[in-house]
Design brief:
The chain has four helices and five strands, in the order E-E-H-E-H-E-H-E-H. By secondary structure, the chain is an alpha/beta fold. The chain has a single domain (2-106), classed as 2-Layer Sandwich (Transcription Regulator spoIIAA). Helix 1 runs parallel beside helix 2 (56-71).
């Protein structure tokens, strides 16, 4: 997995590319979220458009990241969910936990 970050109006936008799977992918996600929080950016928008694969470990890390950000007084939201991930979040009912957006300006305005 690769992650690139940029900041817009104090919101950390993290663009994820590749696989969020057990091993490197899930730990990289945890690391990039932790880095954002440690640099004072409590509002995080995960752009999932480049995610090709996610497994149960990756889903677990998404939930863990959501909890970590929320406990630090911030918000974690998702942008551009691939169809498979959207379906998976619906099946697991996690879609009710995450705020999901299809366009960036709308997502940014929601913070």
């Amino acid at each position: 997995m690769k992650a690139t970050t940029r900041t817009v109006n104090g919101i950390e936008i993290i663009n994820l590319q590749g696989k969020i799977t057990i091993g490197a992918g899930d730990s990289q996600l945890r690391e990039v979220i932790t880095n954002a929080l440690n640099s004072g950016k409590n509002n995080v928008l995960l752009d999932m458009s480049g995610v090709t694969t996610i497994d149960s470990s990756g889903i677990g890390e998404l939930v863990g990241s959501y909890t970590t950000v929320t406990n630090r007084g911030g918000k974690l939201k998702l942008l551009h969910l691939p169809a498979k991930l959207n379906e998976l979040l619906h099946v697991t009912q996690l879609i009710t936990v995450f705020e999901v957006y299809e366009n960036e300006p709308e997502a940014l305005a929601s913070f």
